[in-house]
Design goal:
single chain; elongated; binds pyridoxal-5'-phosphate; decarboxylase; manganese; arginine metabolism; Prn/Lys/Arg_de-COase_C; PyrdxlP-dep_Trfase_major
């Protein structure tokens, strides 16, 4: 079964048979010098041997960070025993190993899918790496008041919703011994060709028994971290990290482990890992068989006792609860009116039995092959006595379903580095949380740092408090205050704010009425500070055939658009968001062509009273500003359509929003080519938010250009446009539309067009354009 001789213990052997046997004269750390410098009482208690092998890195014993001999061999033996390609010893427990797994698999800003009920070391790994966690709901067990594993269906759905995720982390099995269908999850995750990391803190024994859940390495996971010290024979802090396949960089893993682990690893821990591996590899099957048999008897006996319950394989459902490690014994005395916490107290105080942990309903006993028959009998005797002596005192409250996972505003690293402010819990609705709130049962965070606090969460906490259920995590143990992150203190580290770059294009020949050529001068006159901010694109005047009534001023439109397209393309390539202020709407031919040259898949929302979808054949006026959108989709005169070099907009990626003046030719076009349309009347009917929800369903793009024509606003609020149309949006509605679009899409670029000083009244339109520019300056994450 094994390729190597699993009887070897290279680390322990060199320490015992070489270093200690030779009685090396120690002029190295640790300073106790093989025990001679240790405080007497401690030395007498410990005995001499631990100190004889408590050494540091030197050639004779090899080093953990760059192992060449004995440690290298011990790691090879561990990999052989566990079926890994490479194994690493972690003397900072599985906590350190999990941090290393995460840091090797994801970098700042990358998405990692994790169960909502992760161990805190996963949060630490996420904070250290700067990754963006996407939470998956575990299966909640109402009966036993705990959270189990994440079902494969949940992983599948979350990945479908987040196809850009870089890794997935799963727990196998949970603290309570319940495992999900890991093999199926491996298949799902590998369809996306990303690594599956497994927190196998409670599974270093799985590989050695058919009766236990499948181990991560056998299931095909890419990496797993096991607490060798928890379940099998290593000393506390001794864990092993296993890796296989090509989705994790082995070099990076070594580098990260070296970064996280001490340069003075304990050789006692390393030797204990070495020997624990030998023991489990050679004798594991027998030892585990016995411990399962014994645990089954213990469970059975407890279940016979009045008022006590100990769940087992009956909880399995073939999904998130797929298999079970029966050595975990969760005892509930809920029927006697005892909480898990109370039961633990009784076990410790009266019977000298120390459980692993207790929760609201259960006490968890970890049983292993280290137990004796006598210790199991002590538990049974204690449980019988408690059953006889306890008068049933009141009901233990049942727990409510936990609230929806709130919106994450900052990732955990950003939240970690942001200043916190203490505030009353009831006043915290709407603020960003700086703390965790954990609800027990079922032992799951209802709020994590960086998440927006909702009324539902605060009400839930109040309900738990009233019901006497357990809420943990807050610094204020009285649960009256919470540390929040005020917007002003919020640190955004990894989601780069895209810089706006404003271009001013004072062009009017697409509208063929005078006015918009003064738009930028008008802005500068009212807001001189914008002179330092806006880069001017000078219109290019060409000779024109003034008798051409079908395509008026076409040569100037094309030449100006070319200059704008080139500048837009440059800015997008350099990571900017161009904001193009016009000028009549024909300039969008330039801005959108420039964008599409770089971002072929971007969509466009056209917020305008008009559709601008005429061609030279259908246009009643021959003004090109009414033909731009058709030309961008490849329809109309070749002089215009040539401009974006074949990168035509797909009509399915175009949405006309708020139109209220459509020509028959345009209506034909919309129908024929299937352009998305939500008219202004429809917005009024549905309401703005619902209309934007519908827009989101229609426009299935990630990146979006907003082409905003001021004439979409009611002339009462923005009269200064080329072709006013009655009614239209209010200014606040436009700001809301922009806000929601920024939430729903990555906004690549924006046009703000048709500002006409000659028709403006009381500076209403120019003020609104400035308001929009300021708004865009404030958004953009
Ligand atoms: C599920 C889970 N993961 C990780 C850890 C961390 O393991 P260690 O204590 O070895 O650092 C624990 C510890 O309790 C755990 O229960």
């Amino acid at each position: 079964m094994y390729k190597l001789n699993q009887k070897e213990t290279p680390i322990f052997s060199v320490l015992k048979d070489v270093y200690a046997a030779r009685e090396v004269i120690p002029f190295h750390v640790p300073g106790h010098k093989q025990g001679a410098g240790v405080e007497k009482e401690f030395y007498d208690f410990m005995g001499p041997n631990p100190f004889k092998i408590d050494v540091t890195i030197f050639e004779m014993v090899d080093g953990l960070h760059n192992p060449k001999t004995h440690i290298k061999r011990a790691l090879e033996l561990a990999a052989d025993a566990y079926g890994a390609r490479e194994s690493f010893f972690c003397i900072n427990g599985t906590s350190g190993a999990i941090q290393a797994m995460i840091m090797s698999a994801v970098k700042a800003g990358d998405k990692i899918l994790v169960p909502r009920n992760t161990h805190k070391s996963v949060n630490a790994g996420v904070i250290l790496s700067g990754a963006q966690p996407v939470y998956m709901d575990p299966e909640i067990d109402h009966e036993n008041g705990i959270a189990h594993g994440v079902a494969p269906e949940t992983v599948e759905r979350t990945l479908r919703e987040n196809p850009d995720a870089s890794a997935v982390l799963i727990i196998n099995p949970t603290y309570y011994g319940v495992a999900t269908d890991l093999k199926k999850i491996v298949e799902i995750v590998h369809e996306y060709d990303i690594p599956l990391l497994v927190d196998e803190a409670h599974g270093p024994h799985l590989r050695f028994s058919e009766e236990l859940p499948l181990s991560a390495m056998e299931a095909g996971a890419d990496a797993c971290a096991q607490s060798t010290h928890k379940i099998i024979g290593a000393m506390t802090q001794g864990s092993i990290l296993h890796v296989q396949g090509d989705r994790i960089s082995y070099g990076k893993m070594r580098q990260v482990l070296s970064l996280l682990q001490t340069t003075s690893p304990s050789y006692i821990l390393l030797a204990s890992l070495d020997c624990a591996r030998k023991q489990i590899a050679l004798d594991g099957a027998d030892l585990i068989k016995k411990s399962i048999e014994r645990a089954d008897i213990l469970r059975e006996e407890i279940n016979k006792i009045d008022g006590f319950k100990c769940f087992g394989r009956e909880v399995l459902d073939g999904m998130g609860k797929y298999s079970f490690d029966p050595t975990k014994i969760a005892i509930s005395a809920r029927d006697l009116g005892l909480t898990g916490y109370q039961l633990e107290r009784i076990f410790v105080d009266k019977y000298n039995i120390q459980p692993e942990l207790s929760d609201f309903y259960n006490v968890l006993l970890v049983t292993t092959f280290g137990d004796t028959l006598k210790s199991h009998e002590s538990v049974i005797a204690a449980v019988k006595e408690i059953s006889n002596e306890t008068k049933h005192e009141g009901e233990i409250p049942t727990f409510k379903d936990i609230p929806n996972v709130p919106e994450m505003e900052q990732n955990p690293r950003e939240a970690f580095f942001s200043e916190k402010t203490r505030t009353r819990l009831e006043e915290a609705v709407g603020a960003i949380s700086g703390e965790f709130i954990m609800a027990y049962p079922p032992g799951i965070p209802i709020l994590c740092p960086g998440e927006r606090i909702t009324e539902e969460i605060i009400d839930y906490v109040e309900d738990l408090k009233k019901a006497g259920l357990s809420v943990q995590g807050l610094e204020d143990v009285n649960l009256e205050n919470i540390n929040i992150i005020q917007e002003i203190d919020a640190v955004y580290l990894f989601v780069e704010k895209v810089q706006n770059f404003i271009l001013g294009v004072p062009f009017n020949l697409g509208a063929a009425v005078t006015g918009t050529e003064f738009a930028i001068d008008y802005l500068f006159g009212e807001y001189p500070e914008l002179k330092n901010v806006i880069e001017l694109i000078e219109p290019v005047r060409e000779d024109e055939n003034l008798f051409d009534k079908r395509l008026k001023f076409v040569n100037s439109v094309i030449s100006t658009s070319k200059v704008l397209a080139e500048r837009t393309r440059e800015l997008v390539t350099s990571g900017y968001r161009p904001i193009v202020v016009g000028g009549d709407h024909s300039i969008s031919l330039g801005s959108i062509s420039g964008l599409l040259a770089e971002k072929r898949d971007a969509g466009v929302i056209w917020i305008d009273a008009h559709a601008d979808m005429n061609t030279a054949d259908t246009s009643p006026s021959g003004n090109i500003h009414g033909m731009v959108l058709a030309a961008l989709m490849g329809h109309g005169d070749a002089k215009l359509t040539r401009l974006n070099k074949g990168n035509f907009l797909d009509p399915k990626k175009v949405l006309l929003f708020g139109a209220r003046d459509l020509d028959p030719g345009e209506l034909n076009f919309i129908e024929k080519y299937g352009v998305n349309l939500i008219t202004h009347d429809e917005v009024l009917e549905m309401g703005l938010v619902a209309a934007l929800e519908k827009a989101k369903e229609m426009l299935q793009v990630e990146e979006l250009h907003i082409s905003f024509d001021l004439d979409s606003v009611d002339p009462n609020f923005a009269p200064g446009v080329s072709v006013p149309v009655n009614d239209g949006f209010e200014k606040e509605e436009i700001l809301e539309i922009f806000s929601i679009l920024f939430e729903n899409y990555k906004i690549t670029s924006v046009d703000i067009v048709e500002l006409n000083p000659l028709t403006d009244k009381d500076g209403k339109s120019v003020d609104f354009v400035k308001e929009l520019i300021d708004f865009l300056d404030g958004v953009g994450r």
